[in-house]
Structures are given as C-alpha cells and as structure tokens.
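Incident log, support desk, overnight shift.

02:14 A customer reports that sequence design results differ from what the structure should imply. Their input is reproduced verbatim below. On-call engineer (initials T.W.) acknowledged and began investigating.
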C-alpha cells in the first residue's frame, strides 16, 4: 500500500504517470480494501484511490460518521486535493450516494468529474423508509446474510462481529436518514449499474439516476443481487476503462 499522508485515501497501485484518477467509495460497513481487485485491474490505466471511512480497519478507533452530508463535506475537502487530474467516481450502494453528494460539492467549487458510476443504489430522489440501523445486533447480521455481502464464516465469528457491527450500524444510520435536497443536476456523465434481483434497488429506481445529470446517462443491468459486482468485476472494469477512453480529450 502506498502512503498518501491521508487517513481518507488508500492507493494500492499508484500510477503516477497516468492521466486519470478513479475514486472508489465503499458500501455500508465496507472498507477501502473491498476495491483492491478493482485497483489491481485498472492500474496502470488509472490511478485508483479507495476511500476509507472512519470506524473500520486502521481507523477502527475513530467514531463513525452517521450523517451523509457531514461525510460528503469532509471527503470533498480531501478529494479536492486530488483533482489535479481528471476524476471519475465509482460508488457502490451507500458509496454511490456519498459519491454523488461529493460530486455536487466539487462542482460548486468548479471541479467537474469525467463521470460517476452509481452501482447498486437507488437514485437520490428515490427514497424508501428503512430502519435497519434500529435493529439489534442479530437483526443487523440477518441483513448482512440477506444481501450476501459478507462471508458467512465471518458472521459466525464473535470477535469479527464486535469489530464490524458498529461501523455497519453507523453507516446504515447515515444512509437511512439521508434526505436528498433538490439542486442543479450534475454536468458529468452518469452510468447506473444494478443487479436484476437486488432486493434494495428496482430497475426503475436505478434508471432514475438519469434525472440527476444533464450529461449522457446509461443504465446497465447485471444478473445478480445487491453485490452483483463481485461476480462481474471484469465487465465493470471494462466499463470504466471504456468510459475513460471514450471521454479522453480529443476522442
């Protein structure tokens, strides 16, 4: 892992000579290391940054941020320093919403992304009433099993659960209490990715991301549930590299 001097960013495969940066935002309860395979596959075509939220792994002793606006504010201050190269954002589930809110804030500062990949998440304007963060620990574990995003052996390990459940609960509180505030649409292309059997996202809810940009929009539906991207990493990486090539200056 390359040192970045920041608690927020992990740079597993530095690509200092490339033109583009891809910033990856984890799902609820997730960590930067989830994107290690993406980083390996995209390097050296892009310099990949993976966001590390407080309250997990090497930031375990820090309190979780349980408000999306606060999280986005802090990440905007951090990621603006990395905007010396064109930025493309990739966010999965909660990470898609965080990426969207950071993109809005960066645009207000004059930084327009080359693209936003919104994976496994409803459009910000499409909200549901959800209260997973109010469940007891067993209820949280049941939700993790339902979404198949965590190894079942890890869920049976009490030591692991003690470490991961606080971050999971904090992230669920953040995303479930998030309220979209209407504002100008983005000026960058948006590609929404979703699984055809995702219990958290209907295809129409993913398609509604089109309302949040004035640039080109595309929707791609993959076979699978909420963590469909784990089974389609190669195809998703190809989508990102194709996008970077198609939006390159002079292309």
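02:41 Re-run completed on a clean worker. Output:
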């Amino acid at each position: 892992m390359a040192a970045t001097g920041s608690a927020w960013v992990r740079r597993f495969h530095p690509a200092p000579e490339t033109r583009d940066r891809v910033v990856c935002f984890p799902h609820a309860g997730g960590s930067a290391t989830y994107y290690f395979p993406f980083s390996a596959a995209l390097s050296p075509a892009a310099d990949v940054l993976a966001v590390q939220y407080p309250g997990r792994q090497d930031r375990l002793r820090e309190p979780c941020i349980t408000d999306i606006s606060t999280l986005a504010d802090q990440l905007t201050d951090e990621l603006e320093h990395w905007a010396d190269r064109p930025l493309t954002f990739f966010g999965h589930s909660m990470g898609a919403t965080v990426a969207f809110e950071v993109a809005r804030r960066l645009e207000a500062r004059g930084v327009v992304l080359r693209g936003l990949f919104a994976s496994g998440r409803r459009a910000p304007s499409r909200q549901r009433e959800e209260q997973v963060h109010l469940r007891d620990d067993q209820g949280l574990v049941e939700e993790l099993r339902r979404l198949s995003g965590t190894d079942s052996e890890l869920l049976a390990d009490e030591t692991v659960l003690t470490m991961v459940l606080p971050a999971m609960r904090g992230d669920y509180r953040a995303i479930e209490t998030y309220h979209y505030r209407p504002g100008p649409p983005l000026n960058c292309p948006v590609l929404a990715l979703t699984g055809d059997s995702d219990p958290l996202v209907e295809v129409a809810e993913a398609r509604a991301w089109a309302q949040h940009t004035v640039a080109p929009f595309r929707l791609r539906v993959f076979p699978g549930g909420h963590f469909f991207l784990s089974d389609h990493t190669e195809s998703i990486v190809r989508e990102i590299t194709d996008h970077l090539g198609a939006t390159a200056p002079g292309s």
